[in-house]
Structure formats: structure tokens, C-alpha cells
Amino acid sequence: MVQPSFDAFQAIADPSRRKMLRLLSKDSLTINSLGEHFDMSRPAVSKHVKILHAAGFISIQDIGRERHCTLKQDGFHHLQEWIDYFDKFWVSKLKKLETLLNNKSQNKK
Amino acid sequence: MVQPSFDAFQAIADPSRRKMLRLLSKDSLTINSLGEHFDMSRPAVSKHVKILHAAGFISIQDIGRERHCTLKQDGFHHLQEWIDYFDKFWVSKLKKLETLLNNKSQNKK
DNA sequence: ATAATACGTAACTTTTAAGTTACTCAAACG
DNA sequence: CGTTTGAGTAACTTAAAAGTTACGTATTAT
């Protein structure tokens, strides 16, 4: 897994880029076929693809003059790790609450 | 869970806001105490907090003239759901590969 | 009652992101 | 070998985000 050169969080901040990832979850697509789903110029699509690639969300395979974009796990992993950190926070918060409740019920005895 | 009025993905696109969430995972903080960790004016901090709140990442409790910010799960859930969708994609991709490999080994027999 | 504190709002500036058009290049096609 | 097709780059415009200062308003402290 190569170090991403673009912030994953910023990459998915744009709705068009999120839509692109959704489309790519159905099928590998070229720049043009991807662009058919959007109301924007091809260079704009190109830019978005570049960002998604730099952030590790897609891999690109050049076949002749076409560029085939495929979903890649790296970017998603990065996000998952971030969320996992906070997940731990909730778990420990629950544990604290649990301990608190246990102590209370013990006091009643 | 109230419908968020701000896009969760955009909310965490900003590094300062992500740092704020990290800080809040350690402790509930007021606007000012939060701001101490940043090199920006207090109104700027206020704006970020507003966004995090609107996106469902924090809850705010007014105590006198202070505003206490606490981490909230809603925003994180939203993100997790999004990632989960793609997780399914990887799983099904793996299954397809598995089936493919099984068929190949059967042909050998 | 007055001063200090904690914060929000408004108006504005600056920065950055997203989009455009015009152009270029290389691969495929006839 | 000229032409079409798929895509990248450069220069620019537009729009949105992030930040600022100046000011207003409750709440707390003296």
C-alpha cells in the first residue's frame, strides 16, 4: 500500500467523487464512460479521477488510449481506521457507564 | 437521531475539525478551551463547532455562558454506513474469486 | 451597578476547490 | 497517412470555504 498523496477525507468530501466510487462499485469504467453519468466536462472528470487515485480509492490501468478505473481498498481502509479510533471511544464510554451502574446496584445491597 | 443539516463527509474534510473531534474524544470541552489548541480566532472555532454539530458529530450543552461540546455518534454512524456499502463490494468480489478458483480446481479432476 | 468573561453574528477578505475552454498528444481506424 | 477517438495539461473564471475584525449580548464576578 503506497502512501497516499491526497487526503482521503477531502477526496470523499465531493458528492461527484462519491458518486464515482458508487459507479465503480458496479463496474470498472473508463474516464469517458464514467463521465457519461455527470453533467460536467471531461477534463473535470479527469481531475476527480486523479484525486480519487491519489487518495488511494481507485487504481488505474492504461489499456491503449483508454484508462480503466477500478475500486481500490486503500482509501477505504484509511477511513475505517479513523472511525475505528472513535469506535473505541464509544466502547470505553459504555464500559464506564456499566461499571457505574454495577457500583450503584452494589451499594443498594 | 435527527436528520443532519450538514454533510458529514464535508464536515470531516477539514483537518482542524478532525483534530477537534480527537480532542473531544479525550474530554468534553467548551468553545474557548477547544480553541486553545488552535492557531485561529475564536469565531473561527465557533464556526467549526457549528458545522460539526450540524453534521451530527457533537452535541452541545449550554451551561450558563459556556457551551460544552461532547462527541456524538450520529455523524460517525453515517460514515460507517457509507463505508459498509463498499465493504460488501469487497466481500462479494472475494466470493467471486473463490467460486472461480473452485471451478478451476474442479475442472482439473 | 460595573467590569469581565464566554460566546454569537455580520460584513468583509483571502484562499482553495471546481469548473470551463482551448490546445496537445498518442492510439486506433479507414 | 490522414482522421477520429480517448485522454491530459494549461490558463483562466467562478463559487465556496475558511479566516479575519468589529460589534452585540447574555452570564458571572466584584
From TrEMBL, chains A, B:
Which keywords has UniProt assigned to this entry? Answer: DNA-binding
For this entry, the protein name equals DNA-binding transcriptional regulator, ArsR family
A molecular function (GO) held by this record is: DNA binding
What is the organism of origin for this protein? Chryseolinea serpens
Segments passing through the bilayer: none
Checking SUPFAM superfamilies in the record gives:
Winged helix' DNA-binding domain
Family matches, as PANTHER family: SLL0088 PROTEIN (PTHR38600:SF2), TRANSCRIPTIONAL REGULATORY PROTEIN (PTHR38600)
CDD domains for this protein: HTH_ARSR (cd00090)
Q: Which residues form the HTH arsR-type domain?
A: 1-93
* Keyword DNA-binding appears in the UniProt entry: yes
